[in-house]
Design goal:
The chain is an alpha+beta fold. It is about 55% helix and about 15% strand.
Length: about 70
């Protein structure tokens, strides 16, 4: 049998996305260095800069997974 994921209410999803954006903005206003965590890769050579936020991506993924798991209950 095919297992289907439970459907999420679109209104609830909009509220969650709005709260996440507001929370991110609040963190930026408070001076939290989002996107510049230890472990993020920055490569500079001459006029070229390459930035890969690996640790920031992993942290965001874990936090979103926990938040969505709490909201599904």
């Amino acid at each position: 049998p095919i297992v289907q994921a439970p459907e999420m209410n679109p209104r609830k999803l909009l509220v969650v996305v709005g709260l996440l954006i507001a929370f991110g903005g609040l963190l930026l206003m408070l001076g939290v260095p989002i996107g510049r965590l230890p472990g993020d890769i920055t490569y500079r050579r001459g006029n070229t800069t390459f930035y890969f936020p690996i640790v920031t991506s992993i942290l965001a993924s874990v936090l979103l997974t926990l938040l969505l798991a709490l909201l599904r209950r």
